[in-house]
Known about the structure:
Layout: E1 3-8, E2 11-17, H1 18-26, E3 35-38, E4 45-46, H2 86-96, H3 101-106, H4 109-121, H5 127-143, H6 146-157
Antiparallel strand pairs: 1-2, 1-3, 3-4
Helix pairs in contact: 2-5
Amino acid sequence: MSNWYLFRNGQSNGPYPEEQVREWVKTGQIAPEEKLCREGDTNWMSLDMIPEFGADRPATGAAPAAAPSVAPAAPAAYGASPPKDKVVAGILAILLGYLGIHHFYLGNTGRALLYLLVSVLSVGTLAWIIWILALVDGILYLTKPDDQFQRNYKNWFCSGP
């Protein structure tokens, strides 16, 4: 079973276990035109284009169930960035962290620009301090479990269409 992202109300959230998404589909809480993406995939598709959920959709003409009080959150929509790889982020932090490249990769441009500007404007004299911070970032990225990495850094790189 896969984990899925769902895009709704201009926000990207998830991932959700497939069983939970199936339940939302069965009860009509996900509209056929809403976008879904399997975790680790880059292709966003509307619900009606995903064969895995075809048997779970309510019959045509059936009244949709009321939306849940807490709407299921959604993934980055069609064309948006998929979840980032912690290994890539860790290696970028260790090798090119003094330039903030790992933060650019994760979508945290504010911190990335700070790292880059401190390194460049100090003509390299403070780059070693930034590199130590980046080394710590890289070690943290590489040692976190995948789900915790995605949860901690999701706000940096999950966005809507």
